[in-house]
Amino acid sequence: MFKLVCGAGNEDNESVKRLVYVYASAGCKLFDLSARKEILDSAKEGAALANKQDVQYCVSIGIKGDKHITKAKINSSKCIKCANCLRNCPNDAVYSSILIDEKKCIGCGICFNKCPAGAITLEEKDVNYKEVLPYMVKNGVSFLELHVMGHDKSDLAKKWQVINECKPEFASICIDRENFGNKEVLNRIRDMISMRNPYTTIIQADGVPMSGGSDDYKTTLQAVAMAEVIQNANLPVHIMLSGGTNSKTAELARMCGINYWGIAIGSWARKIVKPYITKEDFWGNKDIQESAILTARELINTCI
Predict the structure, then answer these.
(1) Could you tell me the pTM of the whole model?
(2) Which of 5, 107, 232, 265 has the smallest set of CB atoms within 10 Å of its CB?
(3) What CATH class is the domain 68-124?
(4) Any residues with CB less than 8 A from the CB of 132 and at least 6 apart, and which?
(5) pLDDT tens for residues 254-266?
(6) Tens of pLDDT along 90-130?
(7) Residue-wise pLDDT tens digits, 51-67
(8) What residue ranges in the chain does DSSP mark as E strands?
(9) Where are the domains of the chain?
(10) Angle of helix 286-302 relative to helix 267-277, nearest 10 degrees?
């Protein structure tokens, strides 16, 4: 299965609508969205325009300390207007060198790392998950995902409980090794799946979150390595590769003997269609749409 990750922090309605339209037209049947009602509506609009009725949706939330729920902020008094943030933002969230469009910011942290003046901070922006998640399930969302790359176990327990109470078709755990080693990763997964039936949980093995800006084997190596850790534990879960995934992921996974259930691609999938979906005349230009769909289809085919 191929999953398009629109971005857990991507709140740009038009961008999501176009992404879903393009990738649904290309054959994608699962879309990962920000857990916001208006984003789900935009995704459904995109699927309807593609005349696709059989797509499914996954919405993502994160625990405290997880970068997927952060937004970048620029302190204008510290900013030296070098425009590093403007040049390097993959989602065009920075404008006028000192302003950030919060709806477009996905919390990747690239601007933070590129800022020589320390003028950028990453601030958490959570959702009212107790209200939003039940709404999502009632409105056709089949997958609820929790990003657990943080140390706040209390927040993890509360949000995981709400996800399970919503009884989605699948619950997904997105986890990487940035903050803890293999032992802690597996212990956390075992604790979380202990309350669920076998093979109703997806483990999204997030190699290096939001790092898929290049299309080579090295970029996707950690996603495959992370999946191997999960596979070797023989847990009753489905494995989905993510974090640095690209057109080389499936090939490398097969070479390494990984029995994956799906591949989730975000950064690379968005990057390759960006030249098309950002065109002002996108909706009125069939040639642009077809070029975007062809590009998306070529990527999807590498994951089959």
Answers:
(1) 0.93
(2) 232
(3) alpha beta
(4) 35, 36, 37, 59, 61
(5) 999 999 999 999 9
(6) 889 998 767 889 889 888 889 999 999 999 999 988 889 99
(7) 999 999 999 999 988 87
(8) 2-5, 30-34, 56-62, 70-74, 94-95, 99-100, 120-124, 143-147, 170-175, 201-206, 238-242, 262-265
(9) 2-64+127-302, 68-124
(10) 170
How many Å apart are CA 50 and CA 73, to the nearest integer? 35
How far apart are the two ends of the chain, measured CA to CA in Å? 7
Question: CA–CA separation, 236 vs 266, rounded Å?
Answer: 26
77, 101, 144, 145, 198 from 137: Cα distances, Å: 44, 29, 8, 12, 20
Q: What SS3 class is residue 121?
A: strand
| Amino acid sitting at position 238 | H
Sign of the alpha-carbon dihedral angle for 264, 268, 269, 271? positive
3-state secondary structure of 245: coil
Domain 2-64+127-302 of CATH type 3.30.980.10:
no
Q: How many alpha carbons lie under 13 Å from residue 4 in its C-beta half-sphere?
A: 32
Rounded-to-integer distance, Cα 221 and Cα 197, Å: 30
